[in-house]
Amino acid sequence: MKREDLDALLKDMSIEEKIMQLVQIPGWSFEKDAAVTGIAENEATDKAKRLAGSILGVNGADKVKAIQEEYVKNHPHHIPMLFMLDVIHGHDTVFPCPLAQGATFDPEISRKGAAIQAKEAAADGIQVTFSPMVDLVRDARWGRVMESTGEDPYLNGEMAAAMVKGYQGDSISDKEHVAACVKHFAAYGAAEAGRDYNNCELSEYALRDQYLKGYNKAIDAGARLVMTSFNTLNGVPSSGNKWLMRDVLRKEMGFDGVLISDWGAIGEMVPWGFAEDLKEAAELAIKAGVDIDMCTESYAANLEELINSGEIKEELLDEAVMRILNLKNDLGLFEDPYHGACDERHKEIALSEESRNVARDAVRKSLVLLENREETLPLKDKKIAIIGPYAVEKKLHSSWALSLDPEKNVTLMEAAGEADKVSLYLGMNKAISADDKQNTIVRVAKGSTVLDNDTVIGNGEYHDDDFEETNERLYAEAMEVANWADTVVLCLGEDLGQSGESTSRADIMLPDIQMELFYGIRKNAKKLVTLIFTGRPLDLEHIPELSDALMICWRPGTEGGHGIWDVLSGIHSPQGKLPMSFPWVVGQAPIHYNAFNTGRPKPEEGPGDFTTRYLDCPNEARYPFGYGLTYSEFEISDIVLDKTSLKKEVPGSKKDKITASVKVKNSGLVPATQTMQLYLRDISASRVRPQMELKGFKKVRLFPGEEAEVAFEINEEMLRFWTIDNVYDSEKGKFKVFIGVDSATENEADFVLE
Ligand code: BGC
């Protein structure tokens, strides 16, 4: 439709029709006899089903088509409904969770993954995904860190922009793509004490300098929707924050797409104590520019009265409706209300070999090797034990993979069993056959249940069927298998219901039952490789020093087992880098590498009384941001700068720049990929600046003995920040540049901005 046609359509719509475009209802409203959440009366329910502009949580092409067909037929102007769903890290093919994708430091793999998710979801009836989640996360107590790509604004921005491009492609009218919704605006990740849905107390400096940058890049990449957050920001709930939504998001960031509330968030302004009732909540939200009310009756029940009484102008309504109509139009829904949804096609493309290969590649790239003493990995022995609940656990996705079939996930046990020249045995109850004697023998034992019987988990959706199974029996079998093996691979972790929404934890350790297993195995194993499946950084207690090798496997998704086996067996060297600091203990949270130095920085050695330090643990993370080993060794040269000063104002159009380079040499024995990281520090400024900030990264793949130069450009724009005058600008003076393999690098050089 042309713009004039949309204008004419809007003009012709009744107030009720227009208001209902702003209402989103949950998918189950269309189940027989269901009431619509938040839209209490039956009459309203019918109205919502007839007129609501969008729906969330329904997929299945035939189902979607049936709802849409009926809806369009009965709608007074035959305007199609929008179908939205949380396709966060996979629809059928599930990719590693977003935090794991952050660990790849590879935006391209996330772009490819998002494109596959879009293709599968679109064929299955979805037109909008509530992704990417770009909340900056520093506090591992918050369960939703799993949905983010981590603690760094630059990395988050790069990953989010790539995901937006993957979901949306060149045009959302393309039937293989969906519209992306950036969330949760804003600063949801700063929830006080890591407790979900909580207040965020942030200075405008911290907000702008750290928290908003990621969202901004996703919006610049063209994301068509933004979602408000559940938190308050300095006392103001996001869905009623006019300054945040109208001044910052729309005017400053230039966002002109659809702003949708998070689930029930408009109504939540009442219990927050920001609105007296749903009517006032509706007024605050529409004035703040929230276009769609997700699952409350605030808009449906109150907007008409607010317009009639003159409390809000009809133009506000029209503005919101037009944004929604535009989105529908750009998706091509007026021509094809199903956006290409087709069950046959969905079946054909879901979980294709090609998609699985991309997911497998993403898993390999996301694994972070934290320890590898005496080159324990890759596996070399002929007698391998794979032990632990995550050796056999099929639920390798996260609580935000909603439409997958977990049976399609590949466990580590299954992957090992499929490998060439490997024979798989369960437990010790069978002698090795003569035919298998030449092979690597892998014996598998579950070792323990996933959780302790009394562990509290989120979502209430998980029930371990093995609760009743005797852990003594599992434990005894595991010890026998461990005794037999030359190397034990022990698979421990957090349950899928322990990270995601509403899963804050005051303690971030593994379940006791798994720690008991760990200590038992350590006593019995000759060599111990520990794998951790998790959605958040954990307090790993004594695991790092007692393991010969330690690798973080995150929530790896469909191809988890394959990708992990590829790395364990040495076909691929690990290359993942931590996107979030791993603390020593939970008491360090929130912890992040880009912190301030303080006026009393901790001396390197000595008791350092009256300097900034904990008495009982280091200040630094146990494993810092950007950290991760490969199977090889790398030598990094000193930094070479082609010049040591940069001009702030350069006449003419050409921007001044410094080239900073290092030589990187693979001095080990196997080919490997290293991720070189560029950090900058502003030595003194009108506001205190972080000790270092990531400004670039580059992957370099080298064969043993091979050397390459890795060069980064530094320009004035990279030195900008929110100055004391509240402008985004650079300030003249001294700077440091760091280039290394993680954020603990001391490889530095100096330059000035003149
Ligand atoms: C979550 C959002 C999600 C929405 C719709 C909310 O509870 O906070 O991230 O997109 O539900 O499912």
What is the class of one domain in the CATH system? Alpha Beta
Strand order of the biggest β-sheet? 9-6-5-4-3-2-1-10
The average pLDDT value, as a whole number, equals 95
Beta content: 15-25%
Bound molecules: beta-D-glucopyranose
Give the count of helical stretches: 21
How far from one another are the termini? Answer: 53 Å
The main sheet comes to: 8 strands, parallel
Described by the principal axes of the CA atoms, the overall outline is globular
What would you give as the CATH superfamily of one domain? Glycoside hydrolase family 3 C-terminal domain
Radius of gyration over C-alpha positions, nearest whole angstrom: 27 Å
The number of distinct β-strands equals 28
Assigned CATH architecture of one domain: 3-Layer(aba) Sandwich
Instruction: Give the helix proportion (percent range).
Output: 25-40%
Structural class, judged by helices and strands? alpha/beta
**Which segments are poorly predicted (pLDDT under 50) over 5 or more consecutive residues?**
35-44
- What is the CATH fold-level name of one domain? Rossmann fold
What order do the helices and strands come in, and which of them pair?
Blueprint: H1 3-12, H2 15-21, E1 23-26, H3 42-51, E2 54-56, H4 61-74, E3 82-85, H5 98-104, H6 107-123, E4 128-129, H7 153-168, E5 179-185, H8 204-220, E6 225-228, E7 232-233, E8 236-237, H9 242-252, E9 258-260, H10 269-272, H11 278-288, E10 293-294, H12 298-308, H13 314-330, H14 343-349, H15 353-366, E11 368-372, E12 383-387, H16 389-392, H17 412-418, E13 422-426, E14 440-445, H18 471-484, E15 487-493, H19 512-524, E16 527-533, H20 543-546, E17 549-552, H21 560-568, E18 634-636, E19 640-641, E20 645-646, E21 657-666, E22 672-682, E23 693-702, E24 707-715, E25 721-722, E26 728-729, E27 733-740, E28 748-753
Parallel strand pairs: 1-2, 1-10, 2-3, 3-4, 4-5, 5-6, 6-9, 12-14, 12-15, 13-14, 15-16, 16-17, 20-28
Antiparallel strand pairs: 7-8, 11-17, 18-21, 19-21, 21-24, 22-23, 22-27, 25-26, 27-28
Beta-D-glucopyranose (BGC) is lined by residues 56, 86, 130, 183, 262-263, 501.
